[in-house]
Amino acid sequence: MNAQNTISVKKSSTTIDAIFISSSNDTKQKQYYCFKKSGYVYYFTSSLKKKKIIRNCQGQQWLKLNSVKGKYFHHQNSIKISPITYSMYEEETVNNLYYIATIDSTGLNVSAMGKEDNKKFTLLFPN
Q1: Pairing between strand 40-46 and 78-86?
Q2: Which residues, in sequence order, are bridge partners of residue 99?
Q3: How many CB atoms lie within 10 A of CB 109?
Q4: Is the pTM of this model over 0.85?
Q5: How much of the chain is helix, strand and coil, in % rounded to 5?
Q6: CA separation, residue 119 to residues 1, 10, 100, 116 (Å)
Q7: Please, are residues 8 and 16 in contact by the beta-carbon 8 Å criterion?
Q8: Per-residue model confidence as pLDDT tens digits over 15-73
Q9: N or C: which end of the chain has fewer CB within 10 A?
Q10: What is the CA radius of gyration of the chain?
Q11: Which residues, 6+ apart, have CB-to-CB distance to 58 below 8 Å?
Q12: Contact assessment for residue 123 and residue 109, using Cβ atoms and an 8 Å cutoff
C-alpha cells in the first residue's frame, strides 16, 4: 500500500491506525471506517460531530455497541476488509463476502467484492 504525501496514515507493514469519513453529503448521517492497530476495522454511520467521533473511536465499548466489526488484511496494493460473523460457539469467523479498499492521494476508495461501484472516504484522523 503506497500513500501519497497528501495523506498521512499511521501504519506499519500490517496495520493502520486511522479514521475515514464518507465524502458524500447525501444524508445528515456520515459513514465512517475506523481502522485499529489490532487489525480490526469498524464501520458505522453517525451524525455526531467529528471531535466526538474521534473520541468515541478511541474506546472499545462505543464501537462495540454502534458499529459493524471486521478484520482487515493487506492484499497486494490494497486492503481486504472482511466483516466478522460469529459461530454458534461465539468464535469470530470471516465469510466469503469482503470489500476492497485502496488509499490514494485523495482518500480511501471502498468497493464490494466484484462491484465497480466505489465509495469515497477522506481522512478524518490523524490530520
Answers
A1: unpaired
A2: 81, 112
A3: 16
A4: no
A5: 15, 50, 40
A6: 18, 22, 11, 10
A7: no
A8: 678 999 998 877 788 999 999 999 999 999 999 999 999 999 988 899 999 999 999 99
A9: C
A10: 14
A11: none
A12: no
